[in-house]
Structure formats: structure tokens, C-alpha cells
Design goal:
By secondary structure, the protein is an all-alpha fold. The radius of gyration is 19 Å and the shape is globular. The relative contact order is 0.12.
Length: about 270
Amino acid sequence: MEEKKGLLLNRLQIIGYLLYFLILLGERLAALILSVRHGGVYALTSGNVFNYIAYGITAASFVAGVALCVKPSIEMGKALFGGSAFSFETRSKGLCVAGAAILFGGMMHTGFTLAGLQFVSYGFLIGAMIVKCVEDCLNGKNKFLAISSVIYLTLFAMAIPVCYISFMDLPLRISFFAFEFVAVFVLVPCFFVMLGDFLKEGSDVFRFQYPVLLFVLSGAVVALKWKEEINFFVLIFLALTEAFYLSFGLVARRKRKALASEAKGE
């Protein structure tokens, strides 16, 4: 691939990650300031224990996210304005840890939540993944693996449930709260581990344990709240993720292993 084209694609990826950091952190900062009295049953002053937990997680996520995104953001900024390329392959760990720390807060529904703005930030993250896919395809890497990886990662991310309040009967409500918080703290790291794998050369995005965890945790969250409200968004993306994995993920795993064997044979 031409050097200028490669640098342009690298810069587009940088912009995607930087805007993901900036927009989601800004939205969550507004939430921390305005959620104290704003949002009715979601307001911190409403006295509901859920709000104390969600607000505390959001605050911790914001502080950790700011601290962790400083280094990768500075490095990406230097590459963006200095005319050099940022090595996503070698620096993926710090980037993904920072992204996960911020997203924990993004998955908490607080008294002041701008869902549209959150989706814009996620859109920039997905956009960065798509640019990486284009870059891989132009560099002669396996197009099926690159494209299927981006689609799978996007579907997986959309199938992670946001933590919402509930007013179901107490035993069921406790189970629901437990599963939705566990789902966030297990599945968000899973997504960013897979994203790190996608950014690295030759890593396997389609390991079987991730769709299993998604099926169990997201499925439990949807099932437990079924009588009170059906979360069609998570339900649809959960079904799409599992169907895509069974249809294309298993094929991608075999193809990845075949390419790795061929490389070793050489």
C-alpha cells in the first residue's frame, strides 16, 4: 500500500479513538454533574440504592478513564500532528485498557444520560475498526478474516446490556441487578480483549468462550426482566451475534488456523 494512503488510514484510526475518548468522557462528566438531582427515579437524590452504585461506578470509571487515556492520547496526538504513524499493533494494550475503563461508566444509566451522544462516540470507535479493516484488506491480508472480525466485534459490543434500574419483586430484582452488573464487568473486557486481538497481527478474535459468556450473561439479563420489560435491542443483537459466530466465526477460526499452519510451513 502506498505510504501516503497508509498514513491517511492511520490518522483516521487515531481520530476515531481520540473522539471516542473525548465524547464519552465529556458525556459522562455531564452525567456526574447533573445526575445528582436530574432524572427522576435515576437521580442520586432519589434514594434508590441502584443509583448510588451506578453513580459510584461512573465516577470511578471517569477518573480511571482520564488517567489511563492520557498516555495513549498523547502518543496518538504526536503521531497525528507529527506526520508519523501510530503503531496500533504494539500499543494496543494501553489503548484497550483505557477504552474499557471509560466504557464501564458508559454502560451505567444515570439521571442525565445523552444516549445519542454515547452512540456517536461508539460510532467513532466502530469507524476506527472499519478503517483498520480497510487497511488490512489493502495490505493484502485475508479479507474474509478482516471483514468478519469487524462485523462480529460490532455485533458483540451492541449485545452488552446497559445497567438499568428495576422495580420488580425483590428476589427477582436482586438477581437482575447482579447479572446486569456482572455482564458489564465481564463482557466489556471481553470486547476490548478481542479488539486488542484484532489490532495485533495474527491474533484470534473468534475464541469460543466469548460468545458463550455473552449468551449466558446477556441472555440472563434479558430473561430476568422479561415480565417487566423486553429489552429488544439486546435480544436482537444477542441473536445476531450468536448467529454470526456460528455461521462465520467458526469458519474464520478454521481459516486462521490454516493460514497459521501455512506460515509455519514456509
